[in-house]
């Protein structure tokens, strides 16, 4: 599969950018980091709104920028869709006119597809002043898609919305990731948005890529610990539905061969990929296999890593990483007392009781 290559150097103020990314050409890649880390600057370089000092930006087989070849395609020729924090609709145009503004060639089928995807049909004759914030953002996304872009850039599109409006737009963004077959770069500082939407995660700090990769891998890396408090430590799994229990409204999902969990019933067929989140506080550790327990998910594994954490006032916790299968790990948080009492150490075989599992994303697009 062809890739999206973003490799460039640039100086903005006192920040020295040195970006080196190779990303999938489908699905949502979240660009994450603290304020001022360089997230928006990165997508502006892709859009041509800022010119790097050197490097190259290539989407598939189309070169947008290459300093060595003296290529720098103007912004208006890059065929890029850009969705900003505010919708930036024309107030004197109705929704239909806003959607078609800038469309160079009419395509009735594409128009209808986008309108249906974003549920815009009831809004077509309204004006921006008659729309909610969430509806305006859906129109802005539709306008970007109708230009048939080769890439979609989204700069914190939910940041200006209140919680009810964010909840209104989020399902459409989830559907967007599944339906649109182009790369989407999604700038955000919201972990909730990243968890629900992203397939890939890029962490930026000070103009540098700290880490990049599938979200399940990046989420468990040390780079994410500054954003995950003691109660927020968790493990993400890319799983697959393997069966349903209709009597108890449960679905069974496979994490790895011979390693599966029961979750609240998922509306989907066997074989459907989903993402799961297991909070470290919802995992307890036993040396012996439990019997006659109310907890349905008990997995056998081997301790692969132990790390001590301090939380002030001399309160300490222990992060335990359990290897369930090849390339499949589970994180648990326990007390120092429990570690000492059970004599836990790397290499010890244990049983993990999982008290809760969250389905954070359905109908995932796998790159």
How many β-strand runs?
21
Helix % is: 10-25%
Uncertain parts: 362-367
Envelope shape = globular
Order of helices and strands: EEEHEEEEHHHEHEHEEHEEEEEEEEHEE
Mean pLDDT: 91
The number of distinct helices, counting runs of at least 4 residues, comes to 8
Q: How would you write the strand order of the largest sheet?
A: 7-8-9-3-10-11
Strand content: 35-45%
The gyration radius over C-alpha positions equals 23 Å
Cα-to-Cα separation, first versus last residue:
9 Å
* Major β-sheet profile: 6 strands, mixed
Structural class: alpha+beta
How does this structure look, described?
By secondary structure, the chain is an alpha+beta fold. Helix content is 20%, strand content 40%. The protein contains eight helices and 21 strands. It has helices at residues 39-47, 95-100, 108-117, 133-146, 163-179, 191-197, 215-219, 336-342; strands at 3-12, 15-24, 27-32, 54-59, 62-66, 71-72, 80-83, 151-155, 183-188, 200-205, 208-214, 234-245, 250-256, 259-264, 273-279, 283-286, 297-310, 316-325, 328-335, 349-354, 358-361. Strands 7-8-9-3-10-11 form a six-stranded mixed β-sheet, sandwiched between helices. A five-stranded antiparallel β-sheet has the order 2-1-4-5-6, covered by helices on one side. A five-stranded antiparallel β-sheet has the order 14-13-12-15-21. Helix 4 (133-146) packs parallel to helix 5. The longest helix is centred in the middle third of the chain and has 17 residues, at 163-179. Residues 362-367 have low confidence and may be disordered.
């Amino acid at each position: 599969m062809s890739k999206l290559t973003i490799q460039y150097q640039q100086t903005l103020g006192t920040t020295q950018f040195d970006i080196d990314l190779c990303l999938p050409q489908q699905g949502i890649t979240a660009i994450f980091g603290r304020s001022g880390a360089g997230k928006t600057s990165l997508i502006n370089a892709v859009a041509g709104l800022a010119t790097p000092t050197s490097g190259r930006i290539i989407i598939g087989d189309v070169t947008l920028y290459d300093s060595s070849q003296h290529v720098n395609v103007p912004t208006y020729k890059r065929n890029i869709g850009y969705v900003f924090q505010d919708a930036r609709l024309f107030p004197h145009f109705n929704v239909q006119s806003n959607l078609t503004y800038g469309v160079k060639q009419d395509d009735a089928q594409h128009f209808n597809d986008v309108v249906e995807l974003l549920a815009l049909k009831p809004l077509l004759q309204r004006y921006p002043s008659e729309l909610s914030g969430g509806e305006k953002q859906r129109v802005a996304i539709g306008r970007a898609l109708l230009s048939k872009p080769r890439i979609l850039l989204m700069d914190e599109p939910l940041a200006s919305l209140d919680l009810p409006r964010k909840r209104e737009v989020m399902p459409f963004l989830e559907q967007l990731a599944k339906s649109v077959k182009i790369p989407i770069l999604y700038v955000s500082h919201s972990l909730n948005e990243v968890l629900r939407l992203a397939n890939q995660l890029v962490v930026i700090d000070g103009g540098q890529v700290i880490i990049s990769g599938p979200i399940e891998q990046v989420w468990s890396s040390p780079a994410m610990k500054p954003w995950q408090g003691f109660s927020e430590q968790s493990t993400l799994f890319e799983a697959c539905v393997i069966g349903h229990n209709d009597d108890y409204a449960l679905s069974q999902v496979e994490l790895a061969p011979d390693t599966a969990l029961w979750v609240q019933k998922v509306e989907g067929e066997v074989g459907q990929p989903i993402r799961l989140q297991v909070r470290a506080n919802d995992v307890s550790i036993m040396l012996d296999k439990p019997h006659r327990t109310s907890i349905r998910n008990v997995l056998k594994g081997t301790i692969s890593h132990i790390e001590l954490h301090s939380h002030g006032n001399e309160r300490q916790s222990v992060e335990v990483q359990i290897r369930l299968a090849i390339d499949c790990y589970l994180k648990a948080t326990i007390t120092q007392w429990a570690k000492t009492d059970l004599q836990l150490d790397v290499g010890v075989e244990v049983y993990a009781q999982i008290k809760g599992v969250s389905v954070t994303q359905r109908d995932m697009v796998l790159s």
